[in-house]
Amino acid sequence: MKKLFTTLSNIWKIEELRVRILYTLLILLVYRIGSFIVLPGVDPASLSNQEAKDGLLGLLNMFAGGSFSRASIFALGVMPYISASIVVQLLGIAVPYFQKMQKEGESGRKKIDQITRYLTIGITALQAIGYVKSQISPEARLISEPLFTISSMIILTAGTMFVMWMGEKITDKGIGNGISILIMVGIIAQLPYGIFGEFMFRLNGSGGLIAFFIELVALFAVVVFTVLIIQGTRKVPVQYAKKIVGNKQYGGVRQYIPLKLNAAGVMPIIFAQAIMFIPSTIGQFFPSAQSSLLASFSDYTSFAYNLTFAILIILFTFFYTAITINPNQMADDMKKNGGFVPGIKPGKATADFIDAIISRITFPGSIFLAIIAILPAFAIIAGVNSQFAHFFGGTSLLILVAVVLDTLQQIESHLLMRHYDGLMKTGRISGRTATTSVGTSEAVI
């Protein structure tokens, strides 16, 4: 306990870190206040939002911090921006024009960001129309059509763009990745309701407190398993040649390239989730055209949904790892710096060696990721409350763990740069290495 208070005191002593944390908390406060502001022309007492709390739309409601079910001005959250980012990244693989922009450095990145913003506006406008038509009942509307739909579409689009702006401000002037932190806060806001609902459900005779305690132990085990998947690395030894400059010797020591078991982070689940939202979106626009196949893909506890979801996650894990980690660039960087993998020739042989290791560790990593993603469905089948079951795996748990670890690492970096002890007793967060990473990239949402 004394160590904790000492660490908090050290955090407060660093002015830059203190300002960044307070700025982040201020933005999050604005975001949470906005999530309770209902759209103009909507009667909150007449909202029929049970569908938004259960089923597939419950995931959207969780990511938006409950704004989706409350018909808030932030009801769509940052999901349209994430969808637009996914589309732009896919275009960067298939379209030469976007490939060229990706290679233009900072100027190209600014162009891509601008295109992503414009695409976000279009996606948000379409989703806003579907949201108004499907989630706000006629009894809850105080304004006649078409004025209500048009005004709601404009406000929801502006709300999403404002949330996106707040996320960018957190990234620039706050602590952590802004978009990820906004999603995390929305998920955490639903956690007390989920725990309380499950507690009352078990207390009223469905298993009793023993079953509730077993569920908490199972949740803790899943969190530990998720941390191991996120932090797991395969260390590739790298030897650097000795260099003598004046009277000093440089190099000649062995370091490691930490290749992550899950280098793609939560992006494969988000990619797959965005695709799995398509059937429910189609059902919103064409309610009369729903078939048994469409209905099964809208039920996230069905066998067809989970099998397809797991396969998409495995495929997207390989895809995203391939576009974020370049073994050829890593081999070239090592060669330029006089480094080599013991027993492997520099150049192409090193690139092939690294590529083979990445392929071997990515496959089990993708399997574990798929298992974590479909765990909530098994929890619901086992009798867990659907609101609480979301935290037994899936995107919500991965985002929580990944964002918390990333934010803690940033705070720890500020402490270590100013010669304070880190957050842990060893001075490093468990799972991190003190070795130099060559050419690796980590995907964080």
From TrEMBL:
<comment type="subunit">
    <text>Component of the Sec protein translocase complex. Heterotrimer consisting of SecY, SecE and SecG subunits. The heterotrimers can form oligomers, although 1 heterotrimer is thought to be able to translocate proteins. Interacts with the ribosome. Interacts with SecDF, and other proteins may be involved. Interacts with SecA.</text>
</comment>
<keyword id="KW-0813">Transport</keyword>
<comment type="function">
    <text>The central subunit of the protein translocation channel SecYEG. Consists of two halves formed by TMs 1-5 and 6-10. These two domains form a lateral gate at the front which open onto the bilayer between TMs 2 and 7, and are clamped together by SecE at the back. The channel is closed by both a pore ring composed of hydrophobic SecY resides and a short helix (helix 2A) on the extracellular side of the membrane which forms a plug. The plug probably moves laterally to allow the channel to open. The ring and the pore may move independently.</text>
</comment>
<dbReference type="GO" id="GO:0005886">
    <property type="term" value="C:plasma membrane"/>
</dbReference>
<dbReference type="GO" id="GO:0006605">
    <property type="term" value="P:protein targeting"/>
</dbReference>
<comment type="similarity">
    <text>Belongs to the SecY/SEC61-alpha family.</text>
</comment>
<keyword id="KW-0812">Transmembrane</keyword>
<keyword id="KW-0653">Protein transport</keyword>
<dbReference type="GO" id="GO:0065002">
    <property type="term" value="P:intracellular protein transmembrane transport"/>
</dbReference>
<feature type="transmembrane region" description="Helical">
    <location>
        <begin position="388"/>
        <end position="408"/>
    </location>
</feature>
<feature type="transmembrane region" description="Helical">
    <location>
        <begin position="21"/>
        <end position="39"/>
    </location>
</feature>
<feature type="transmembrane region" description="Helical">
    <location>
        <begin position="118"/>
        <end position="136"/>
    </location>
</feature>
<dbReference type="InterPro" id="IPR002208">
    <property type="entry name" value="SecY/SEC61-alpha"/>
</dbReference>
<dbReference type="InterPro" id="IPR030659">
    <property type="entry name" value="SecY_CS"/>
</dbReference>
<dbReference type="InterPro" id="IPR026593">
    <property type="entry name" value="SecY"/>
</dbReference>
<feature type="transmembrane region" description="Helical">
    <location>
        <begin position="73"/>
        <end position="98"/>
    </location>
</feature>
<keyword id="KW-0811">Translocation</keyword>
<dbReference type="InterPro" id="IPR023201">
    <property type="entry name" value="SecY_dom_sf"/>
</dbReference>
<keyword id="KW-1133">Transmembrane helix</keyword>
<keyword id="KW-0472">Membrane</keyword>
<feature type="transmembrane region" description="Helical">
    <location>
        <begin position="208"/>
        <end position="230"/>
    </location>
</feature>
<feature type="transmembrane region" description="Helical">
    <location>
        <begin position="179"/>
        <end position="196"/>
    </location>
</feature>
<dbReference type="Pfam" id="PF00344">
    <property type="entry name" value="SecY"/>
</dbReference>
<feature type="transmembrane region" description="Helical">
    <location>
        <begin position="148"/>
        <end position="167"/>
    </location>
</feature>
<feature type="transmembrane region" description="Helical">
    <location>
        <begin position="263"/>
        <end position="283"/>
    </location>
</feature>
<feature type="transmembrane region" description="Helical">
    <location>
        <begin position="361"/>
        <end position="382"/>
    </location>
</feature>
<dbReference type="GO" id="GO:0043952">
    <property type="term" value="P:protein transport by the Sec complex"/>
</dbReference>
<feature type="transmembrane region" description="Helical">
    <location>
        <begin position="303"/>
        <end position="325"/>
    </location>
</feature>
<keyword id="KW-1003">Cell membrane</keyword>
<protein>
    <recommendedName>
        <fullName>Protein translocase subunit SecY</fullName>
    </recommendedName>
</protein>
